[in-house]
């Protein structure tokens, strides 16, 4: 991998990360009373297998978590990821995609004040010839009995995007990070309801949308082995993956819906999820104006140090994605807090959906492999 600057600069980002997450509000500094010991959990313990995360949310919360004080916890995750793809076009024409290795650093802090106030800050830096950094999430949460309130830059509760492989599923096109207010209510120990409002960045032509919104309902079994949920968002154009391309505004809002399920057993885990637009984007071509994708995965845990998983996914009218994709992945614990994962995916594209740069050959299928080394601290 060619470098433009000294690798020393990357570690400057590490220092900035710790400096950023250690910025504590004055109200926390004034907290001197020790926190009460939490009550003993009544739920059955969840067995930890050879994986670091199975969703983007778990990835953001990954890391061991070290208590610096009784109100501050820090955690971190370093990932080295490499992907390679071979694209097979018509008439035996081939093209390869061999991007640089990506090094990602994530540092998270959780600041708690008593039992009702919590602040979370997640810093992320990335290097692959260039350095990029951002505050991935900065939010404050308040819990009052069965009610919870979260405000700040955060991911809205639209979809879980389950995956046991390094390469994320196509349905991640629905993931959305915005300045938002999320209100959740625990109906009982198993059912949670949530509604959210977030800042709109893409407006309808001639209008200022101001705010978008959505809601979510989730059921989780007592031992967390079963999880089922559905959610809705008022505007898919607000997703991090710009579905309307270079358009600065749109003719009409296109809402989206999501549903997912997880069923876990002692050595197996099955996940299924779907994301779909409810109507067509007026700005897009007729063959790709109502994106839909679903993903089904089966994971098998071989003891505590090995996991193998299989995936089958389908997408429709989702630009640059295969119509069908199948794959296998394996994850192994190499040492304490060090994990290696390897994937292979085969993608089959719809006829006449994607062509090469000269619009001469149509893309038929694709082979992808990926490897990731992850270190928690």
Structure commentary:
This protein has 377 residues and is mainly beta. The chain has one domain (8-30, 45-376): Beta Barrel (Porin), CATH 2.40.160.10. Helices cover 6% and strands 50% of the residues. The chain is built from three helices and 20 strands. It has helices at residues 8-21, 26-29, 56-60; strands spanning 66-67, 72-89, 94-97, 102-113, 117-127, 131-144, 147-155, 177-186, 191-199, 203-204, 211-220, 226-233, 249-250, 256-264, 268-277, 292-302, 306-316, 324-335, 338-348, 363-376. The strands form two sheets. Strands 2-4-5-6-7-8-9-11-12-14-15-16-17-18-19-20 form a 16-stranded antiparallel β-barrel. The chain has a two-stranded parallel sheet with strand order 10-13. Strand 17 (306-316) and strand 18 form a beta hairpin. The protein is globular and about 65 Å long. The two termini are 25 Å apart. Residues 1-47 have low confidence and may be disordered.
């Amino acid at each position: 991998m060619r470098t433009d600057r000294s690798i020393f600069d990357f570690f400057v980002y590490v220092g900035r990360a710790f400096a950023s997450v250690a910025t504590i509000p004055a109200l926390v500094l004034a907290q001197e009373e020790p926190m009460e010991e939490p009550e003993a959990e009544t739920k059955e313990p969840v067995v930890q297998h050879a994986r670091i995360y199975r969703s983007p949310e778990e990835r953001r919360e990954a890391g061991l978590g070290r208590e610096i004080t009784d109100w501050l916890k820090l955690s971190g995750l370093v990932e080295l990821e490499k992907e390679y793809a071979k694209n097979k076009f018509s008439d035996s024409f081939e093209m390869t995609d061999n991007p640089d290795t990506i090094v990602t650093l994530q540092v998270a802090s959780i600041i708690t004040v008593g039992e009702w106030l919590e602040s979370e800050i997640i810093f992320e830096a990335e290097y692959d010839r260039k350095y990029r950094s951002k505050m991935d999430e900065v939010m404050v949460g308040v819990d009052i009995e069965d009610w919870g309130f979260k405000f700040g830059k955060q991911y809205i509760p639209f979809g879980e995007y389950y995956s046991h492989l390094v390469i994320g599923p196509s349905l991640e096109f629905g993931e959305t990070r915005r300045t938002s207010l999320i209100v959740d209510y625990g109906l009982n120990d198993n059912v949670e309801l949530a509604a959210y409002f977030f800042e709109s960045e893409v407006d309808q032509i001639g209008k200022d949308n101001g705010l978008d919104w959505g809601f979510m309902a989730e059921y989780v079994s007592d031992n967390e082995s079963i999880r089922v949920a559905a959610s809705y968002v008022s505007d898919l154009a607000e997703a991090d993956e710009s579905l309307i391309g270079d358009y600065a505004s749109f003719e009409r809002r296109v809402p989206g819906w999501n549903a997912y399920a997880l069923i876990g057993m002692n050595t197996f885990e099955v996940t299924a999820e779907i994301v779909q637009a409810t109507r067509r984007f007026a700005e897009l071509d007729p063959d790709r104006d109502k994106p839909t994708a679903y993903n089904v995965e089966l994971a098998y845990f071989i003891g505590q140090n090995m996991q193998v998983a299989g995936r089958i996914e389908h997408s429709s009218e989702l630009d640059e994605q295969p119509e069908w994709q199948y794959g296998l992945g394996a994850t192994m614990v190499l040492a304490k807090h060090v994990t290696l994962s390897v994937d292979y995916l085969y993608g089959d594209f719809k006829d006449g959906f994607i062509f090469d740069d000269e619009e001469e050959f149509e893309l038929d299928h694709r082979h992808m492999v990926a490897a990731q080394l992850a270190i928690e601290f």
